[in-house]
């Protein structure tokens, strides 16, 4: 992400998505990353998606998890589905 894409005052990307979520999403969806890194990103996103009460990070985190379904890895897809179920969010 270009430095200009982040509002230096709030630390949030100009499109309103937290840069941490964007970074985790990139790690999760980059096929060149080892599965261990991708799983760590997934579980970090799951933590954000499961916060109670929900925050402004909840839906972007869920969408970031869902983006991982483009991976050819059946193991990763299984964990993605499990983590989405754990969120208990209808999104």
Automatic annotation (TrEMBL):
Protein name: Deoxyhypusine hydroxylase
